[in-house]
Amino acid sequence: MSVRAEFDAWAADGRDRGMEERHWHTAKHALARMPVETGDTVLDLGCGSGYAARALREADGAARAYGLDGAPEMVENARSYTDDPRVAYVVGDFQSLPFADDSVDHAFSMEAFYYAPDPVGALEELRRVLRPGGTFYCAVNYFEENVHTHEWQENIDIEMTLWDYEDYREAFRAAGFVVAEQDTIPDRETEIPPASEFPTDDWESREDMVERYREFGTLLTAGVVP
Ligand code: SAH
């Protein structure tokens, strides 16, 4: 299935807002770490509902905030949630970004990068559009160490890249980034029921759920263009 077919269906179901709600628990901490300055141009890859571009505009005073997504229905939804003329949503693909060389100051992505058909190529493409000194903050919940998310691939027809911490750092370096930071951001907001309530529909044990959210949470890898 294509990105467009899969995620247009998600957007039509309102899953864009559902993801925003869940991802915001850790995405906001990743966004807060970005060195965005007033007047910057920022880009969110795989924007879904588009919350990250809105947040970077409002909190950091970005002059232009773009959200890019391969699913036109996602883009349409994102557009409907704001009337800020400095926020724009575009249909496009990670492998071929519709931006000029050296035109973006900082880029972000949450729970989207691993869908890239050629992830190192996507990083090289990002490197092309970022200015020297620009950064890419890449946040993912689906990664090798976080075993509790591996089953997601069974529910989606797009091939997902399952990298570990080191794979991310190596890929960033292979694409010409300097790795500035790598960290896991715990999700402290997803409610974890008391032990007596396990197993639940989704979780065998409380320990697994604690590990998934509080320990592994979201993997953030940040690269800087030299
Ligand atoms: N960042 C949002 C959405 C995550 S869902 C959030 O945190 O909620 C992943 C999104 O990436 C989907 O909207 C999907 O359409 C988009 N996507 C996946 N592969 C893509 C690709 N190759 N090019 C552009 N967008 C893609």
Brief descriptors of the model:
226 residues, alpha/beta, Rossmann fold, globular, binds S-adenosyl-L-homocysteine
CATH H-level homologous superfamily name: Vaccinia Virus protein VP39
Strand order of the largest sheet: 3-2-1-4-5-7-6
Q: Unreliable runs, pLDDT <50, ≥5 residues?
A: none
Alpha plus pi helix count? 7
Q: Radius of gyration, Cα only, in angstroms?
A: 17 Å
Could you give the count of β-strands?
A: 7
Q: Percent of residues in helical segments?
A: 25-40%
Sequence of secondary-structure elements: HHEHEHEEHEHEHE
Could you outline the blueprint of secondary structure elements for this entry?
Layout: H1 3-12, H2 15-33, E1 41-45, H3 51-60, E2 64-69, H4 72-80, E3 87-91, E4 104-110, H5 119-129, E5 130-140, H6 165-174, E6 178-185, H7 206-216, E7 218-224
Parallel strand pairs: 1-2, 1-4, 2-3, 4-5
Antiparallel strand pairs: 5-7, 6-7
Helix pairs in contact: 1-4, 2-3
